Q: What sequence folds into this?
């Protein structure tokens, strides 16, 4: 028995340095999401190697498999097979994560009513859509990504474009009337707005810059919907933050949009329901020069737009906190301090308050047109959107209501005695008939003038890596929006990792147990355990995190009721009415 235990310990020590090396590599990878490891090709290669490395450790040096005289039949060939299989698993996991981030709800919105002229399908545009679909179907799978990886390396060495991309480029050129930029490329606009084209996937799978150059030549012919779809698709590209050409195209799309059209673009970009929003685009993704151009244009247009409204009628953004404002924290540190409501329960009336503030401002905007009737230059586009929106009606009905069961809005007429509950049941019945998922959408105003994202939530939770910490809040937002409780899809602005981390540590120190003896004993025990025991088991990079988690858990569990911070929030006494502050 003793010999068996010693053999297990020796085998564990052999795994230790390999495991440490892998963990240190992961720590370096996650420490900076703008490093060279996060480029498209290097990240795919990195995850293939990491999966192969950990798979080799687990299956080659697993103590249970090494006991006795167990030997693999194939010897070193088995190790190679293990590494290859786990590499493919790494490519599959990376491809799945990337495809999920390329999925955009903005691309699925039915925005045709926001366009003056509908794009007509032709033979050239239909063939281009087919070529793009063929490219996506062959390259978006895991095996296609592996072929694309090999093809990219081959293209970098030989300087040749893959035949699938070459076919798409030729089809796009045929949609643009060759090199003539004087006429609007109707076929190209149809392709960019076609619901059968996954625009983010298409741009991700075309490695050639010729597509970007082709789109840039025709920016002046694009409507606001096309520009918005392009900005959203470009922002989701893997190497957007280092791709100068893509950033220049995005800034040109922003600068070519003015007045109320720009406001509509900004609101739609914030309607996506994930962390790809306007704030991330301007403040995190663009380089300093592009950032200055975009911010100056938005500021200038905002000042011009504000002058067109009377006081108290300009569009607004509602800014709110999340914890202890939108939903309760249950008094758990570090989320919040309010014990009156259980955790993750939406505060009564707060969603109705957001809706009423929005409706009040919208009604004021519709009282009369902007005060300046004559507009010049950059203000010429102002109010043209709302004029077109207010004049749009499918048919004259006494009580019009617009419903969207799938992708398209449909105007229906309701009776004066029909309730909202009956209307919702009507929408659900239509969804079941058409075999569509989801709750559907109901609008009592034309979809063109419905409120887009005018709600912004501030969160102390830091932005650590991609959308790992923000995804929890966005899941709640999507659930509330789907059930009709939220009038629009909000935007979430996360905190910074440095400031949020320091605030968390400072809060833990303030909430440390008042019992000096107990605190001293806990402190000594944690130091001994973390500095003496854990290095024998885990890598050194995990020590600080383990100590912080243990310390914060002990502090918060012991002071949940008598904390001074919590006590300052207990202003509601029995027998009194609850007041909002």
A:
């Amino acid at each position: 028995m003793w010999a068996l235990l010693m053999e297990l310990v020796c085998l564990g020590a052999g795994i230790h340095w390999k495991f440490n090396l892998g963990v240190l590599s992961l720590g370096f990878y996650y420490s900076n999401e703008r490093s060279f490891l996060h480029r498209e090709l290097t990240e795919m290669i990195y995850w293939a190697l990491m999966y192969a490395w950990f798979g080799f450790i687990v299956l080659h040096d697993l103590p249970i498999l090494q006991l006795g005289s167990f030997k693999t039949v194939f010897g070193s060939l088995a190790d190679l097979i293990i590494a290859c299989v786990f590499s493919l698993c790494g490519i599959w996991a990376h491809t799945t994560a990337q495809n999920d981030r390329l999925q955009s709800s903005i691309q699925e919105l039915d925005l045709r009513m926001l366009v003056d002229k509908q794009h007509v399908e032709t033979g050239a545009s239909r063939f281009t859509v087919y070529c793009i679909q063929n490219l996506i179907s062959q390259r978006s799978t895991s095996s296609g990504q592996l072929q694309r990886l090999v093809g990219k390396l081959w293209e970098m060495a030989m300087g040749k474009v893959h035949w699938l991309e070459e076919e798409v480029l030729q089809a796009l050129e045929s949609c643009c009337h060759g090199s003539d930029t004087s006429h609007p490329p109707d076929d190209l606009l149809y392709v960019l707005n076609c619901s059968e084209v996954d625009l983010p996937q298409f741009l991700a799978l075309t490695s050639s810059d010729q597509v970007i150059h082709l789109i840039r030549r025709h920016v002046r012919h694009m409507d606001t919907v096309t520009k918005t779809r392009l900005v959203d698709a470009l922002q989701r590209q893997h190497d957007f933050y280092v791709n100068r050409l893509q950033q220049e195209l995005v800034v040109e799309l922003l600068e070519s949009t003015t007045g109320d059209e720009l406001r509509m673009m900004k609101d739609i970009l914030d309607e996506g329901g994930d962390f790809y929003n306007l704030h991330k685009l301007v403040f995190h993704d663009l380089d300093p020069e592009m950032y200055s151009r975009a911010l100056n244009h938005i500021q200038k247009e905002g000042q011009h737009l504000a002058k067109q409204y009377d006081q108290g009628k300009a569009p607004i953004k509602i800014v709110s906190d999340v914890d202890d404002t939108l939903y309760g924290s249950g008094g758990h540190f570090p989320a919040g301090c309010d014990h009156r409501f259980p955790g993750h329960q939406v505060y009564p009336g707060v969603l109705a308050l957001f809706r009423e503030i929005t409706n009040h401002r919208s009604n004021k905007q519709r009282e009369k047109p902007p005060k300046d009737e004559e507009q010049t230059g950059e203000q010429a586009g102002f109010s043209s959107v709302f004029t077109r929106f207010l004049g749009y009606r499918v048919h004259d009905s006494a009580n019009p209501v617009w419903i969207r069961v799938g992708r398209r809005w449909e105007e229906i007429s309701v009776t004066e005695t029909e309730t909202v509950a009956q209307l919702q049941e009507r929408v659900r019945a239509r969804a079941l008939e058409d075999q569509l998922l989801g709750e559907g959408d109901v609008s009592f105003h034309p979809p063109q003038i419905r409120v887009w994202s005018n709600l912004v939530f501030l969160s102390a939770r830091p932005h650590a890596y991609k959308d790992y910490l923000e995804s929890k809040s966005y899941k709640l937002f999507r659930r509330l929006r789907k059930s009709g409780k939220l009038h629009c899809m909000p935007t979430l602005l996360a905190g910074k990792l440095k400031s949020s981390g320091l605030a968390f540590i400072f809060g833990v120190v303030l909430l440390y147990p008042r019992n000096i003896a107990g605190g001293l004993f806990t402190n000594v025990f944690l130091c001994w355990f973390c500095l003496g025991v854990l290095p024998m088991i885990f890598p050194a990079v995990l020590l600080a995190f383990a100590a912080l988690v243990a310390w914060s858990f002990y502090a918060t569990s012991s002071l949940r009721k008598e904390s001074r911070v919590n006590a300052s929030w207990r202003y509601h006494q029995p027998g009194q009415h609850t007041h909002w502050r």
About this structure: The mean pLDDT is 72. The longest strand covers residues 455-462. Residues 294 and 444 are 35 Å apart (CA to CA). The radius of gyration is 29 Å.
